[in-house]
Amino acid sequence: MKAGILAELRASDGYVSGQDLCKKFGVSRTAIWKAINQLKQTGYEIEAVQNRGYHIVSTPDILSENELKSIRKTEWLGNTICYEPVMGSTNTKAMQLAEEGAPHGTLVVTDKQECGRGRRGRNWETPPGTGIAMTLLLRPEINPDNASMLTLVAAMAVARGIEDESGLRVGIKWPNDIIVNAKKVSGILTEMSAQTDYVNHIVIGIGINVHTEEFSEELKNIATSIYMELGIKINRAALIERICEYFEAYYDVFLRTEDLSEIAKQYDAYMVNRNQPVRVLDPHDAFEGTARGITNRGELLVDTWETRRLVSSGEVSVRGIYGYL
Ligand code: ATP
User: How far is CA 138 from each of CA 13, 103, 266, rounded to the nearest angstrom?
Assistant: First the structure.
C-alpha cells in the first residue's frame, strides 16, 4: 500500500485527501495515517493539511521496494522486486532466486553490495549509499549462443538511462563498460545457467557509481561517478527506473531477430573506442589494430595491418594502446 500511496501523491499536483486514499486502498483513515507516518520516518517529506489532505514535498534518495514500485512504469521488468539493504552480490542473489523459481523480469537491488564481482572473478567496489547495484533476471527463450549479446543490450540501456537522468555525455567501451570523460562509471556482468540448447536463466548485473566522491588509489585513474562529473547527486531510484524502461525497449528489439541488427548502428554511435587504436588482450593471441564497430552479433571489428578480425567478448579485454581507453 505504501508504494501505492507514494504513487498517488506523486501523481497529484496538489493535495490528496485522506478519504480518497481510504477509498482507493479500502482501509481506514488511521491505516493511511500510519502508513504516511512510516513513509515520513524513512525520509519522505509529506505535508498534512487539515481539510485538504496530503502532499509530497520531497523524496529522499532512497532505494527500497516501495520507492521502486511507486515510480515503476515498465511493463514486465521489475514486476517482482527483491530489495535488501545489504547483499553479497546482486547477481548471486538473483541466481539463487532464479533457482527458487523467481519470474522473468525480477529486479534485484541493494544499497550495499559487499562482494560485487567483475568479469573473471575481478572485484567490483560499491561503497554503501553511493551507488547502484542491481541485477535483472531473465528467462528468455533464445539460443544460448545468442545470450552474450544481452550484455550489449544492457550497455545501451545503461548508457541511455544515465544520459537521460544526468545530462552527461556517455559512451560505451566495448563490450560492457560505460564511460564518462574517459573513465568508467558503470560495469555490467552477465551470467547464465543453460543446457546445450536451452537457457534456464540469465542474470545481468549492473554496477553504477552514482554519488561516489572518491575512489581508492587503484581505481582513481580509471573510475568516475556521476556526482564527480556533474557535481549533483541525482536520484538513484529514478535512474534504475529509466534504465529498466530502456532495457525493456531494447530487449524487445533484440528478441525480434535474436541479434543486434537493429541496435548495432546506435551502439556504434556510443562506442568510445570506435576508430581508435586498440590492443586486444586475448590470452592466446594478443594483437593491435583499429576498432571499427560491432557486427550484428556484437563482435568487435578490428582492422589490423593485414586483415579485418572479429573479436568475441568471452575471454577478451580491449584496451587503448596507451591506457584504459
Ligand atoms: P574488461 O575490459 O575485460 O571488461 P574491466 O577491467 O573493465 O575489463 P570488469 O570485469 O568489467 O573488468 O570490471 C572489474 C574491474 O573494474 C576491476 O578489476 C576494477 O579495475 C574495476 N572496478 C572495480 N570497481 C569499480 C568501480 N566501482 N568503478 C569503476 N571501476 C571499478
Answer: 36, 8, 23
Residues 259-295: tens digit of each pLDDT: 999 999 999 999 999 999 999 998 888 999 999 999 9
Phi, psi of 161 (to 5 degrees): -65, -45
259 and 149 in contact (C-beta within 8 Å)?
yes
Say whether pLDDT at 315 is over 70. no
Residues 138-174 pLDDT 10s: 999 999 999 999 999 999 999 999 999 999 999 999 9
- With a CB cutoff of 8 Å and minimum separation 6, the contacts of 5 are 21, 25, 32, 35, 36, 39, 70
Ligand 1 binding pocket includes 187 (Cβ within 6 Å):
yes
Going from the Cα of 77 to the center of ligand 1, the distance in angstroms, rounded, reads 26
Q: Please name the residue that has the C-alpha cell 540469465.
A: 202
Cβ of 184 less than 6 Å from ligand 1: yes
Q: Pseudo-torsion of CA 158, 132, 238, 84, nearest 10°?
A: 130
CB 290 within 8 Å of CB 276? yes
Number of the ligand 1 atom closest to the C-alpha atom of 184: 29
Q: Is residue 103 pLDDT above 70, yes or no? A: yes
Question: H-type helices in 136-235, by residue range?
Answer: 149-166, 226-230
Only one residue has cell 511507486, namely 70
Angle at alpha carbon of residue 76, lines to 294 and 124, rounded to 5° = 55
- Average pLDDT of the chain? 93
- The grid coordinates of residue 247 equal 532495457
Nearest residue (CA) to ligand 1, atom 20: 219
Q: Report the alpha-carbon distance of residue 309 to residue 242 in Å, rounded.
A: 35
